[in-house]
Amino acid sequence: MLITAYPLLYVVFASLSEPSSIVAYRGALLKPLGLTMDAYTRVLQNPMIAIGYRNTLFYVVAGTALNISLTCLGAYALSRRNVMFKRPILLLIIWTLFFNGGLSPTFLLVGQTLHMADTVWALIVPTAVNTINLIILKTAFESVPVSLEEAARIDGANDFTILFRVVLPLSLPALSVVVLFYAVAHWNSYFQALIYIQSRDLYPLQLVLREILITSNVESMTTSVSSADTFEIGQTIKYATIVVATLPILLIYPFLQRYFVKGALLGAIKE
Hints:
elongated, mainly alpha, 0% strand, MetI-like fold
C-alpha cells in the first residue's frame, strides 16, 4: 500500500510546494516544502483545463451510456439458452481480443469511411462495446435463475421486460463494475483523441494533461512570471495538473469499491 500510495502523495506534496524548493530538493518528499496554492491557481485559470473537463465529462457520460446500453443488450442475447448461432457469434467476439484491424485500417475506417474524424463521435462510437466487459455481463446474466425468467414469461413479459425488470436488478454488482471500467477508460483515454481530434475545442482533459506534461506547454499559465522562474513554476504546475486530472476518479472510486470486488468475482466465476 505504501509503495502504491507514495507516488500519489509525492505529486500532491510537490504541487503544494514552493517552486524553487521543489526543484532544488533531492530525496524523499514527506511534506510540502513551503505551503502554497499558486500552482493550483494558475492551473484553474487555464481555459484549456475547463474545456478539457467539459469535454471529458461529456465523453464519460455519453460514452458510458452508449457502452452500457449496447453491452447489456449483447450480453443478454448471448446469455440466453436458445439463441441461434450463439457459439459462432461468441467466438467471433472473442476473436477480437487477439486480433484487430490495426491502427491504419481503423484510422481509415473512422476518418474516411465513417467521416468521424475531428468529431466527438470518434471517441465514443468505435469503442462502443468492450469484449471483456461483454463477457463479464454475460456471465453475470447467466447466473440469474432460469425459473425467474420462466415465471416472467408466464406473466406475459417479453425479453426487454425480463432484461430491465428481472436480469439487471439482480446483476447490479457486475453492472456497477462494468460502468466503472467504461467510465475510467473514457476518463483516461487520450490516444484516440490524439489520432482523431485536431480541434482544441474538442480536446479531452487527458490530452490537455499530455500537452502540459510532455511538451511542457505552460506558457499560458506563467505569463506573469519572469523567464528565469518559468521552469521552476512549470514543475509545480505539472504536478498540480496531475492532481486536478485524477482527483475526480480518486473521489468516486471508494464509493464503488465494494461493487467492484463483488462484480469482478461474479463476472469471473460461473457456478
